[in-house]
Amino acid sequence: MKAILTALLLATSMAATATAAQDYQRPGVPSLRDRVAAHDRLIKARLDTVVPKIMREVGVDMWVLVSSEYNEDPVVKTMLPATWASARRTMVLIFFDRGPEKGVERLAVSRYPVGDIFPAAWDPEAQPEQWGRVAQLIAERNPKRIAVNINPTFALANGLSAGEHRQLLTALGPAAAKLESHERMALGYLETRTPEDMDVYNGIMRVAHSLIPEGLSEKVVTPGVTTTQDVVWWYRERLADLRQDAWCQPSVTVQRTGAPGITPGRQTLPENPVIMPGDLLHVDFCAGMLGLKTDTQQLAYVLRPGETDAPAGLKAGMAAANKVQDALVASFKTGATGNEVLMAARQKAIAAGTNPIIYTHSIGLHGHGAGPWIGNWEHQNPIPGRGDYRIYADTAWSIELAALAKVPEWSNAEIRFPLEVDGVWNGSSFRWIDGRQTQLMLIPRAAK
User: What is the gyration radius of the CA atoms in the chain, in angstroms?
Assistant: First the structure.
């Protein structure tokens, strides 16, 4: 892990910044070989520490996951070695808790061992029937409760296909009565961040925080010439250069006033508009590395001729969005549901004089990660099911939201100020993984 951390923290100087008067340092790009080794170490750390913790919390002594090539359980996908693009044929992974002293046993009922993470526990020459071997291993261990991933509410906990479930039931016979579905088993494994994860997450986050302002600068944007899609594809090329995982397509959008036929706050712009002086730019940027994802939204203002700063109303809107962020992270509480956090945060944000829209999600091994929903962008009411899941310690969050604010310089139109930035909840306090944007970026940058 030291090699990958050293590579991530190797920096090259850069003038673009996402916060006021602060220059970001972009981490160096580790070699693919180093990345694979580090990725697998992160997986092993989660399997060694998180799986036993969640199994004992849920009260199960066995967890069975089934995947077929190209139809993998999303949990299994996060457990495969970095050199494995998919499961191989049909693969059954078994976790069996032998107690705190002996720990959790890991087995792969498959033709091949899963790297050095899951040893193979099936010899097809000795026993041609794979499902017979599954039943035999389970009978030998005689678990009391067996967790499987079936859940209608959370897709990430719903990875056991109908066909594979049928095969498992047939193989186990009467022992199938021990099968239980636990959303917490799958979601808890996926959402819990280990110390090893957090050792590298800051460097991964910094890549995003260096690329975004570079794309929203005079290096990339020439007002009156550059289109929003020009910037989008500049981001994609840079992600490819840095061997980053673009887990979603970036987007760059414009809010603008003062043009013929445009009503402030209700713009009808072409799909790929040319960026103009006076535009408020918004970028939504998804990237990741070593299996860990980042999700970031930031704002920039394109200076008009003669301007040296953004209009006061736009800066006030940015400040309002920061207040909504403050209200939300102040409402985090271990054991609270996503719905409870949503309503508490809205109450705080409204009391602070803002008009909030909160639509926050967890992040980690998936961009829209395992855990509760905290609001929806389309409505601000409690969300049955997905909003009822609780907040747990050692989880990472993409604090995604917006403030609606009237801008006097734009005919007092109500403008949306969306922001998104990642942080971690340790059970008692919240911290940003690599800071947050607190001032609008300017295009071009002010001379230093």
Answer: 24
Nearest alpha carbon to residue 369 among 348, 349, 392: 392
231 is written with which tokens? 């910037």
Mean pLDDT of the chain: 90
User: How far apart, in whole angstroms, are the C-alpha atoms of residue 104 and residue 383?
Assistant: 35
Looking at per-residue pLDDT, the higher value among 24 and 299 belongs to 299
Give the three-state DSSP class for 76.
helix
Q: How many C-alpha atoms does 411 have within 13 Å on its Cβ side?
A: 10
**Alpha helices per DSSP H over 59-182:** 74-77, 130-141, 162-172
* Residue 1, amino acid: M
Tell me the per-residue pLDDT of 240-290, one tens digit each, with 9 for 90 and over: 988 888 999 999 999 998 644 444 444 556 789 999 999 999 999 999 999
Write the CB contacts of 144 (distance below 8 Å, at least 6 apart in sequence). 61, 178
Cα–Cα dist 284/435, whole Å: 17
Whether the bond into 27 is cis, omega within 30 of 0: no
The residue with greater pLDDT, 102 or 29, is 102
* Residues 46-73 as b or e (16 or more Cβ within 10 Å = b): bbeebbbebbeebebbbbbbbbbeeebb
**Which residues, other chains included, contact 429 with Cβ-Cβ below 8 Å and sequence gap of 6+?**
none
Nearest Cα to 272, choosing from 286, 251, 247, 257? Answer: 251
pLDDT at 12: 26
Burial of 438 (0-12, 13-18, 19+ CB in 10 A): middle
CB 60 within 8 A of CB 180: yes
Q: What percent of the chain has pLDDT over 70?
A: 90
What residue type is 444 in one-letter code?
P
Query: Quick check: 255 and 267 in contact, CB under 8 A?
Result: yes
Give the H or E element holding residue 414: strand 413-425
Domains of the chain by start residue, with CATH: 2-30+194-443 (3.90.230.10), 33-181 (3.40.350.10)
pTM of the model: 0.90
- Nearest by Cα to 398 from 266, 316, 296, 312: 296
pLDDT per residue as tens digits for the range 152-193: 999 999 999 999 999 999 999 999 999 999 899 999 999 999
